[in-house]
């Protein structure tokens, strides 16, 4: 089985199933686990790794999708030489990875047509289903059940711990800063499981742009900056965009010092096995009195 993964989350699923030896190609964004980083990169993006500000990235994404329909380029000759039996891709979000239609059209031109698996999770249960799907395609279904059982046990542990908390704070999970976007898909569900309420997020639906008026109206108890595609240091730099905004400074969470940063690229934006790490981090952030800190953690911001 020769596997090409076009998604960081899919690569992590392959790894957790013990299939890294079968992974012959990965996307330009795949970075975990360490042992996969030497695999050929089969996608690229013009602005990957750039220092453009949030607003410029947002404008480039909108303009490029309107003109080209995709933000990414497949390294077609490289993939052809890798002779994949299985390509893991997605149809969930054109901003997150290569357009599914482009992948399907290209796969149809290969001498030996690979199987395409579309991973399209919108909730936590869908992430479990994706793990099963990849395991079945690789003929190791029993491995998926062991992985999922452990993840479910960890989720149940979090739910049990936060049940002891005295309150359920309002938490605005912010997926983009300029312009502001609320959390979508699985992230509002994570807030709920972590013992909070996301008054703006769209559970099971795509993230959306929100107004500062809407954010101010909900006046959250806590704000988590989990910027899609950004690591911790990049998110920290982006916070400078908020410093001069009256609407931001007047939020209760900001006044009371309950603003936190996280590596959104590694955790909250990546629907693979480490999504449960995201839940544990979030639960500790909202309820440190009952949920212990984990190895990876959210970082209090200086606001």
> Would you count the extended β strands for me?
13
Order of helices and strands: EHEEHEHEHEHHEEEHEHEHHHEHE
In this structure, how is the largest beta sheet organized?
5 strands, mixed
**Which structural class best describes the helix and strand composition?**
alpha/beta
Shape: globular
What is the percentage of strand-forming residues? Answer: 5-15%
Strand order of the largest sheet: 8-7-11-12-13
Radius of gyration: 20 Å
Q: End-to-end distance, in Å?
A: 50 Å
Low-confidence stretches: none
Tally of helical runs: 12
| Helix proportion | 25-40%
Mean pLDDT: 91
Description:
With 303 residues, this protein is of the alpha/beta class. The protein has 12 helices and 13 strands. The strands form 4 sheets. It has a 5-stranded mixed sheet with strand order 8-7-11-12-13. Helix 4 (100-107) links the parallel strand 5 (86-89) and strand 6. Helix 6 (141-162) runs parallel beside helix 12 (275-286). The protein starts with a strand and ends with a strand. The model has no long low-confidence stretch (mean pLDDT 91).
Detail the topology: elements first, then pairings.
Blueprint: E1 3-5, H1 8-16, E2 23-25, E3 43-45, H2 54-68, E4 72-74, H3 76-82, E5 86-89, H4 100-107, E6 115-118, H5 124-137, H6 141-162, E7 171-176, E8 181-182, E9 184-185, H7 187-193, E10 202-203, H8 212-218, E11 222-225, H9 232-238, H10 246-249, H11 252-255, E12 259-261, H12 275-286, E13 299-300
Parallel strand pairs: 1-2, 1-5, 5-6, 7-11, 9-10, 11-12
Antiparallel strand pairs: 3-4, 7-8, 12-13
């Amino acid at each position: 089985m020769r596997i090409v993964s076009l998604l960081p989350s899919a690569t992590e699923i392959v790894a957790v199933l013990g299939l890294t030896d079968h992974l012959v190609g990965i996307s330009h964004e795949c970075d975990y686990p360490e042992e996969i980083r030497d695999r050929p990169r089969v996608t690229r993006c013009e602005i990957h790794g750039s220092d453009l500000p949030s607003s410029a990235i947002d404008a480039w994404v909108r303009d490029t999708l309107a003109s080209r329909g995709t933000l990414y380029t497949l390294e077609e000759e490289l993939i052809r030489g890798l002779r994949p039996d299985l390509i893991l891709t997605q149809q969930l979000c054109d901003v997150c990875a290569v357009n599914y239609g482009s992948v399907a059209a290209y796969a149809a031109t290969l001498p030996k047509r690979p199987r395409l698996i579309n991973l399209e999770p919108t909730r936590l249960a869908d992430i479990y289903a994706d793990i099963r799907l990849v395991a079945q395609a690789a003929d190791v279904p029993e491995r998926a059940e062991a992985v999922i059982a452990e993840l479910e046990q960890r989720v149940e542990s979090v739910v049990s711990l936060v049940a002891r908390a005295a309150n359920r704070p309002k938490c605005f999970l912010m997926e983009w800063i300029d312009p502001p976007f609320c959390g979508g898909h699985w992230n509002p569900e994570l807030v709920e499981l972590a013992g909070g309420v996301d008054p703006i997020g769209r559970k099971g639906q795509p993230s959306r742009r929100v107004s500062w008026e809407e954010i101010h109206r909900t006046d959250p108890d806590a704000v988590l900056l989990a910027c899609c595609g950004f690591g911790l240091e990049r998110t920290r730099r982006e916070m400078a965009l908020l410093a001069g905004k009256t609407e931001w400074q007047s939020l209760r969470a900001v006044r009371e010092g309950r603003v936190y940063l996280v590596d959104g690229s590694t955790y909250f934006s990546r629907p693979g096995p480490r999504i449960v790490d995201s839940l544990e981090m979030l639960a500790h952030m909202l309820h440190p009195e009952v949920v212990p800190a984990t190895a990876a953690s959210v970082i209090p911001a200086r606001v």
